[in-house]
Inverse folding.
């Protein structure tokens, strides 16, 4: 332990998004000086962390200058004025390379911005860079990136989690005050847990997916990473809301989340019924992680909640169902990367037909894990196996939804670990795919059900590394989850 | 109930799936993915062998039906900008090698 090197920053150093926006809006600090401070951190530590695929320089300078001009001219610079934010590199940025950490998108510059990018810009945020990920968001450690792994700022010898490992590391290292990730089976919550951050997977459809390069369309959802629950609430308020460009975007009004955080801090959670999910809080979960779940439960109890155990039996089938559904959808979504419209094209020597070009391009452009999932998904959807695999997994999805609905008749929110362990060493789980997949056991069920979930830091494990606990609630219960998360965070 | 051996997935199945998926795999990759898929599908046998009589499948978490936009003309992406992203283009078209294998 003593020899491990850490470069992380705690909340408040540098400041939170809330304090930065407050200062910039009030003219106490310039957006340019805030950006300069974060860039110093990037210049000092990015070489060791490798959070970014691309650090934006001129573009960020121009954005910061525009915000300072708006403040000087008395115009409202937006709720995220001057807040440096990092974007997972699977979100399209107009004219700026977007790679999904894959060789297959080499040279591609999207002709449009993702909706979340436009909303952040309109709110006054300064985009500082595009962050590393497991290729096409397939992984739980960021080791599957074509551009090399990201290191955990709390211990550079360990993974940051994944797939949004770069977005987590960028915030933990102080390169950005907040960041966006995408979560298909836990890809925001697990790295948040491993890097000591708050991470949110909103209700499916709450945040537009327009411009998010699709992995598994019925599961993918964008959400924030932040040092504090309040910061995560502020960022989610900005990016949530209906978007006509995403036909799965829901029409409900954007909830008031920051006020829910304040309510949790002032009023606690009196009368709230919390259920610890039995099936996700036993076998396969480290004892030191389970101990932190008990600590979180005690904090909620002290703030007025009742805590009991609840069985959600179908969640034990979640991992298997997910690793059929997600690869099946991926095999279809990734068919578009064929060397025709964007990115890499490889024409095998002596060949003149388009099928050979496509097969050679995909063989050269995709990494081992992406190929594995395309193969698995194609098989699960193929004639003769569709009913046994994909069809059965869709029925299990119904069982999980039904089980959650039953649980929510007796409980307002559910509590589980986020990740079975703290951050692990590089290479520790790469030999056998199932060993890596099991990292997602606690986070997958809410992607299958479409419900919101939040991971909030709750102390450290036996190895001194951060541990997050996960709160789950029914669809559109984000305000309640933020209120509970604020109660847990308050005692950190 | 079936055998927990991935329902007999073989190396030739993997070769066939690679063709469907347009992936030119090496012999070593075919061996590796045969072993990997047998392992992963063996784990998925808990789902594959479950009695699901009377349970409706869920394809999507939202109860959405078709979503239509108003039938009005609106700006779309700039054609030249989109074509400029392609490895090869010609005037208003994406260029690809011949579809039928005739040069």
């Amino acid at each position: 332990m003593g020899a491990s090197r850490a470069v992380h920053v705690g909340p408040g150093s540098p400041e939170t998004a809330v304090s930065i926006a407050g200062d910039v809006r009030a003219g106490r600090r310039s957006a340019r000086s805030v950006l300069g401070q974060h860039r110093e951190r990037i210049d000092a530590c990015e070489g060791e962390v490798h959070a970014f695929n691309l650090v934006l320089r001129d573009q960020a300078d121009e954005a910061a200058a525009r915000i300072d001009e708006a403040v000087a001219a008395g115009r409202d610079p937006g709720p995220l004025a001057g807040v440096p934010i990092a974007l997972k590199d699977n979100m399209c940025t107009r004219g700026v390379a977007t790679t999904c950490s894959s060789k297959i998108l080499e040279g591609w510059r999207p002709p449009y911005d993702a909706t979340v990018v436009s909303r952040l810009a309109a709110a006054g945020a300064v985009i500082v860079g595009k962050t590393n990920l497991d290729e096409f968001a397939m992984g739980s450690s960021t080791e599957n990136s074509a551009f090399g792994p990201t290191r955990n700022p709390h211990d550079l010898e360990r993974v940051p989690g994944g797939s949004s490992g770069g977005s987590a590391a960028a915030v933990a290292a102080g390169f950005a005050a907040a960041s966006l990730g995408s979560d298909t089976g836990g890809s925001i919550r697990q790295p948040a847990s491993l890097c000591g951050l708050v991470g949110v997977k909103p209700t499916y459809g709450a945040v537009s997916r327009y411009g998010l390069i699709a992995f598994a369309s019925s599961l993918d959802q964008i959400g924030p990473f932040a040092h504090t629950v309040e910061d995560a609430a502020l960022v989610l308020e900005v990016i949530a809301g209906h978007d006509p460009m995403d036909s799965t975007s829901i029409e409900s009004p954007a909830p008031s989340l920051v006020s829910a955080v304040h309510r949790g801090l002032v009023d606690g959670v009196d009368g709230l019924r919390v259920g610890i999910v039995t099936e996700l809080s036993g076998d396969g979960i480290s004892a030191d992680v389970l101990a932190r779940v008990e600590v979180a439960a005690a904090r909620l109890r002290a703030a007025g909640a009742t805590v009991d155990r609840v069985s959600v039996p179908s969640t034990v089938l979640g991992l298997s169902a997910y690793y059929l559904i997600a690869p099946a959808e991926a095999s279809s979504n990734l068919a578009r990367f064929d060397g025709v419209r964007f990115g890499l094209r490889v024409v095998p020597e002596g060949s003149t037909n388009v099928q050979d070009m496509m097969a050679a391009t995909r063989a050269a452009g995709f990494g081992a894990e992406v190929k594995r999932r395309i193969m698995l998904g194609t098989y699960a959807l193929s004639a003769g196996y569709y009913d046994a695999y994909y069809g059965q997994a869709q029925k299990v999805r119904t069982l999980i939804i039904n089980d959650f609905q039953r649980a929510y008749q007796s409980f307002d929110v559910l509590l589980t670990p986020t990740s079975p362990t703290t951050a692990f060493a590089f290479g520790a789980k790469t030999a056998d795919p199932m060993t890596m997949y099991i990292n997602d056991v606690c986070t997958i069920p809410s992607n299958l059900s479409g419900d919101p979930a939040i991971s909030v830091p709750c102390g450290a494990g036996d190895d001194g590394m951060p541990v997050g606990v996960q709160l789950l609630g029914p669809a559109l219960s984000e305000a309640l989850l933020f209120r509970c998360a604020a109660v847990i965070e308050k005692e950190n | 109930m079936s055998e927990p051996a991935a329902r007999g997935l073989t190396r030739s199945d993997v070769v066939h799936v690679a063709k469907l998926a347009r992936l030119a795999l090496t012999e070593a990759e075919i061996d590796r993915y045969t072993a990997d898929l047998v392992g992963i599908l063996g784990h998925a046998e808990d789902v594959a062998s479950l009695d699901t009589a009377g349970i409706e499948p869920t394809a999507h978490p939202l109860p959405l039906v078709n979503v239509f936009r108003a039938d009005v003309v609106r700006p779309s992406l700039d054609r030249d900008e989109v074509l400029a992203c392609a490895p090869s283009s010609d005037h208003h078209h994406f260029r690809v090698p011949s579809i039928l294998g005739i040069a």
